[in-house]
Every structure is written in C-alpha cells, then in structure tokens.
Amino acid sequence: MKLGVSSYSLWQAVQKGELDLVGVVGKVAELGGEHVEIVPLGLDLTANPELVERVRNRAAEAGIEISNYAIGANFAGLDDEAFAREIDRVKREVDVAAALGVKLMRHDVANSADTSIRQFMADLPRLVEACRAIADYAKPLGITTSIENHGYYVQASDRVQAIVHEVARDNFRTTLDIGNFVCVDEHPLVGVRNNAKLASIVHVKDFYIRSAESDPGEGWFRSANGAYLRGAIAGQGDLDTRGALRIVKESGFDGYLSIEFEGMEPCLQATKIALDNTRRFWNEIQ
C-alpha cells in the first residue's frame, strides 16, 4: 500500500493563492504523502504541456509518485455530435495522464437532474459505450481508467457495478471513495464491501452526519434523502473509517490510498492529521 493525497484536499490553499498545482505536489511530499493524485480544478492541462512537465518534474524532485489523474466528464443527455465530442475530449485528457506518467485515470461519467433508476437504465448503454471507448484508447498507453462513486447519479455501489461489469474491460475499474456512499444514503461499509474488489485506487474520506431535521447551518450539504453532511478529517467524523479500511485491506487491495479532504478545517493541518490517522489505522489492521 502507498498512502498519499489528492490535490483536491489542498484546494482551499489554492483558492487563497497560497499554493499552485506545482506547489501542491511539493506540499504533499512535505506532509508525508508517498504519492499525489492530480485533480486539475480550474486548469486545462490539455492546453498546457509545460505545466504537465513541471508537475511531473516536481514529483520526481520530491521523491513521490503521481498516482492518478482525475477529471470531470458527462456522457448523459447528449446528442450524437456532443457525445462524440465529449469522448474525444476525454481521450485528450488520457494523453495528459500518459504525459504525467500515471497508470490510473478517473473520469466522471454522467450528471443528471433526474437521478431515478429509470433514467439510469435509459442512459446506461451510452455510458457503457463511452467508458469502453476511453478504456480502449487508454489500454495501449498502459492506463487503467475508472469511474468514481460520486455525483448522486452514479454514486450507489450497484450503479457503479452495473457500469463496470457492462464495460467489461480489464483496464476499467472504479475509484472507490469509502465515504461518498452516504451522499445517496447507502451504508458506507456496505458500499465499500460491494465494490472493494473492483477498485483501482481508494479515496479515504470522512463526513459528519446529522438528521434531516437538524439544520446545522452554514457549511453543510444534503444527501439524496435530506440528511445533512459536512466533510471531516479522516478518522474524526461519523463514519467508521477504520472498518472501511479493514474491508479494503481484507479484499486484497494493496494499491494507492488517497486522502480526500473537503472539510472546513485548515486544509494543511487537516490533511496531515488524515494521513497520520489513515496510516495508523491501516497498520493496526491485522
């Protein structure tokens, strides 16, 4: 196992102008991460090969790996022309992943205001077609692509499984976020157990959870069924982070664990605590 950090965890510092993407890579190494996952929020790396090279060089200088490249995408509700354009765009992002030297890449698959199972089943063939095309493009580059359990529409473990199994490519899996299942009110340990053997990389995330009647105020968002959620430091929230990691470890997973912090605490301190907690939990699991 290699423990590292998603650059998304330090987005708070980037927004404040304290770090840029290259700086994030160095900071992850300072915090004790063994790898960094690149999430290019606000950046188009397809148009900036110089920045791609700088990020790769900074990781090499800092002695850490670049584990995964994660981007947004949406293949639902598009006409044929827009659908083809979106596939081509994501293929260009696969080229960025190759330039970064990563062997893993996560792309989103769908957004929809209608998150019903009826709409999901209607969209499923198109989603599978797109994921197959991208995985097939990535395979000669030695890259495994994946989708994550997030975004409400494709967040429950069975919907992720449906896509992964229908795509049926050995280089297409899931980025497994151990916390995100609560956003669609699925018990996180159930979701993790369902999908652990399909994981290419694992996000370690925690949440505070309050009832739909509690209305705790600023900083919270709502689950699909109305519960209040707020990002927490891994190991300090209401989720059974240790139990989720036990399931992951017992599944035989021995790849990248990536801290993904999205809470209100100062992000550098929060990420360091999350790293320390996750490392301790993992090592204590027999």
From TrEMBL:
An annotated Gene Ontology molecular function: isomerase activity
Keyword line: Isomerase
Alphabetized InterPro entries for the sequence: IolE/XylAMocC-like, Xyl_isomerase-like_sf, Xyl_isomerase-like_TIM-brl
Domain of life: Bacteria
Xylose isomerase-like TIM barrel domain location: 27-266
UniProt-recorded name of the protein: Sugar phosphate isomerase/epimerase family protein
